[in-house]
Amino acid sequence: MLDHESEDQMLIIRLGILCASKGYEDFVSTHISPVLSVRLTASDLADWKLQVDHAATAFKTFYGEMALEEESWDYHLVGLPAAPAPTILHMVEKTLPSILPEPSSKDNLIFEDQDSEYASVQISADDTSNPQFRATRMIKKMFVEKEQNEAYQFLLELRELGITPAPSRAFFFAAHRTLEALLSPDVDPQVASVLRQQYTAWLQLIPDNVNVRSLTRLLFHAPTPDLLAVSETATILTAKGHARRVVVPASRILYRDPASTFGVQFLKDLEATSWRYCDENPTPGVRELHSDLHLRARSTVIKAFARVGRFDEAIELLPGPDSGLKLPISVYDILLHGIRQSQTAATSEYLEVVQAHRLKALAITQDMPVTLPSDTPSLPDEILESDLASSLRLLKRSFKRGSPGPHPQALLSFMEAYLATGRTYALALLFNKAASTSHFHTATFLYAEMMFYFRHYEYDAILETVVDHFYLGNGIPRPLVLAWERDRQKRHAEANPNWAPVSSRFITAKRSEQRTKIWPTSAHTSLLWQAVTLRTKDYPKVQLLYKALLQSLREGLSVDESKPKSLRANPNLALPESSAFVPFLRKMMNKEGFEKGPEIMSDMISLGRTPTVAHFTEIAHQYARAGETDRAMMILGRLEDSLRRAKETGQTEATRGPASVFPDVAMYVSLMRAFIAAKNTEAAEEVARRLDENLGWDEEYPPLQNAVKDLEELKLSKAEEKERAPRYAA
Fold this sequence. Notes:
Blueprint: H1 9-21, H2 25-39, H3 42-63, H4 88-94, H5 131-144, H6 148-160, H7 169-182, H8 189-203, H9 213-220, H10 227-239, H11 243-256, H12 264-280, H13 286-308, H14 311-316, H15 329-342, H16 347-363, H17 388-398, H18 408-419, H19 425-437, H20 439-455, H21 459-469, H22 478-495, H23 522-535, H24 539-557, H25 582-592, H26 596-606, H27 613-625, H28 629-649, H29 665-677, H30 681-694, H31 702-724
Helix pairs in contact: 1-2, 1-3, 2-3, 5-6, 7-8, 7-9, 8-10, 10-11, 10-12, 11-13, 12-13, 13-15, 15-16, 17-18, 18-20, 19-20, 20-21, 20-23, 21-22, 21-23, 24-25, 25-27, 27-28, 27-29, 29-30, 29-31, 30-31
């Protein structure tokens, strides 16, 4: 069976777990593990090995096998009924008198120095009488009998008695199981609170030398991370010597979330815990490792604070000249850039402080300063289809730390040209480069990828991208995304359970070396809402989606007045923008009539979302189709008035305020199309005339040329109908 190449994979997986549960670990490692190492992916193989460990531990715990095993905490089980063999200590005790003379404090020891360095540790003559080991055995027995809740209650009772169970790998498995339940998408908030307490309790009891990789992978790659569990895990595992596994990933998750309220104190406490571990375990190189971890964590947090406007806390984290931490100059440049962009009352004060720190950092480092001219990523030279290799090199060079990176439009143009050749390798290479540089560049690439799918109406690919690479935080329709993923997995399992689901993306998880997850920005969440709305055909579901969007914005924009301003979240950086309302305008006005448009606009404005030309285009289009010519022309006229005033005052696209909305070519074409559908040739011709007058005629814009062609055909058709109409004598 092991040599068979067909669909026996699930049978082999179950056989391995069954053999481990019967004690045949050698057989599993010799015969089954090598076969599955070739057939399974890395993540599936790790999950299988974890199940095998569970089964093997349960077997040893239940049967109490002691032969050929080391008598450690993990293997010290309930004793057998037979009387234990006499120990050497017992035999020595029999040779001694029943009453020993009192020792004199003046007597000198023969073989040992009285120095504190030689203080002996008193070890119990019988470990089975040690309450710590007995408590561990009792809890492990409850684990085997599937009584984890009872085990937790027993642990609480032990705490009240001042007894701490001895560390054991069994507690690691219990913590892992509890974390899986805690991160379940359907977990109730009250149940989650209890599970979080249990998880923390079990995690505190794991041995220091246990491999925590599977647990941290589960925690840091969850679709919806539990931030409290992340913070507790980081603190506990850092104290146990696992700072390398948790410090930097936890900092990224806790502080890059725009809705995060974690402050400076948590990071400082984490650093203090780390240094305390270094003092207690002075092994070679450990302090250098932890210093590098703190440097990376501080850099991450300072840049995260700079992007959300928490400048006081960012400045507080800047290291002094004697701290031993030397931040890259790019961190100071990003912070300075964020301060300049904020234009707050304390801008000059912030700039003075950060520039002073930057000058001191330049004096002790050879790093070159980084210039950030604007928030908008730079647009590389035009992507030429005839020279894709040069374009690829140009884009790769633009992904570097501290730089704005390539413009999403440049990436989108390259994707269009490269995918037209039928290849995808270079795009996977480009994404790996972006993901290994910074989360900002990762977000830029993923936005360009989502835009590509949006242009090609591949809305499921947008959802798949979100599932693969984004935490489901504020602004994302979490229940809908999770339901879509469950449905996709279910449909695939029914069709072919032995293979991974077919990806809709041009970059699959296997092709990507960087299995990274990031927090979404407003650009990502807005595009996701548009895709979800456009793919929904059932109108009652569209109505539910609209209510969910309004509720998401209301909850995200609510401010906790009890918290200091410095700790209040800046959710606008992740909540959907006004563009998320455009598909709702189209679908709901088509179904309920053009009166629904102003109502949606009112909801949008009340939630702080500014209308754009796209919203006015949708409403004017519906008016034109419904025969409300005057209303449609009134909307167009108001936008044209704004355009004329801007031209008179010298206002440009860059200097205009958010309330100034100008018509674009797409709006004129949309109105022409609506009037053509209503067979109103006079109004369509008027719109074409005003387009030429205000924006000029763009001969290279295909939608405009197609609209003009359809208008001419409509005019010709109406003329023919008029000629065929019967004529009556006066």
